[in-house]
Amino acid sequence: MTAVTAGASGAAVLGPVGAAAAAGGPARRRKPKVTVLATGLKFPEGPVALPNGDVLVVEVLRGTLTRVTPDGTTSVVAELGGGPNGAALGPDGRVYVTNNGGLNGFEVGGFTFAGGTPASYVTGSIQVVDLADGSVRTLYTEADGRQLRGPNDLVFDAHGGFYFTDYGKTGASTVDRGRLFYATADGSSIRKLADGMDGPNGIGLSPDGKRLYVSETYTARVWWWEITAPGVVKGGLSLAGSGGGNFLYTAPDYTNFDSLGVEAGGNVCVASMIHAGISVVSPKGQLVEFVDINVGDDPGITNICWGGKHLSTAYITASSTGKLLKVDWPRPGLALR
Prior knowledge:
Elements: E1 2-6, E2 12-16, H1 19-22, E3 28-30, E4 34-38, E5 44-49, E6 55-59, E7 64-68, E8 74-79, E9 84-89, E10 95-99, E11 104-108, E12 111-115, E13 125-129, E14 136-140, E15 142-143, E16 146-147, E17 151-156, E18 161-166, E19 178-184, E20 190-197, E21 200-205, E22 211-216, E23 221-229, E24 232-234, E25 246-250, E26 256-262, E27 268-273, E28 277-281, E29 287-292, E30 301-307, E31 313-318, E32 323-328
Parallel strand pairs: 3-29
Antiparallel strand pairs: 1-2, 4-32, 5-6, 6-7, 7-8, 9-10, 10-13, 11-12, 13-14, 15-16, 17-18, 18-19, 19-20, 21-22, 22-23, 23-24, 23-25, 26-27, 27-28, 28-29, 30-31, 31-32
């Protein structure tokens, strides 16, 4: 099997899958000390570290935005309904949420998973939560006259707008193709940037704001686009790249990619399921290290963010056992806009 990637010159070149990771030699496998910060969460995702030390998570199967204090106490900030999937602090101090509209919860081998389309599904949406009073406003439910199907994750840029992925929805015999969007925080503008993707999930920006990264779940691939202006992206360096994106990296074993975060130095940290942990990938497509996150054999490591002094504490969601984890990280996370 081969993949088409962009070489150093920017030209498309053919190479075996995993070649980018192998080019720098064997990647380090690290097993850090993990602290369980909170338990009993209903498929937590979208962690957001707040300046006061609290961490927000969405609970996909509970339909809430939830606060976790440093001592592990949890409290509901807002009832969102549907399936809140990702969250980010906006330029106005409110929390913006990508809501997939709802997923079915089910168990396999004693672990919880989420997927499919429940009978209660109406639409996907972008919601905004005021942390002061927990009030919720729906900002977007469609773009260009077409329904948002399953918004998954989002990231703000320096201009006050945000990029987000729409994973789509699945049925017994149907699967949506995923899409990529850019929208403004005031609810006045939303537009599609790419489509035809295979389950776009995590999303992040490079430290200089010139690259947009997106991870796909079942292909276990990371794609990137050059950002030429706010909400304007350029790909095309990889033949038939998903959504027109440029290929960066794919897992060398059976892994599902979930959401991602970016370190201050530019590495892309992709939450990896089944082969549970964090795949740390350089901007050149090399696997820097794999961080083994094994807490109760949970295969559902789904997201990462950073907080604490110097942004050196990683907060990681272990969704299939309902936990929020804390890990001392060797490199600082990127300060989000």
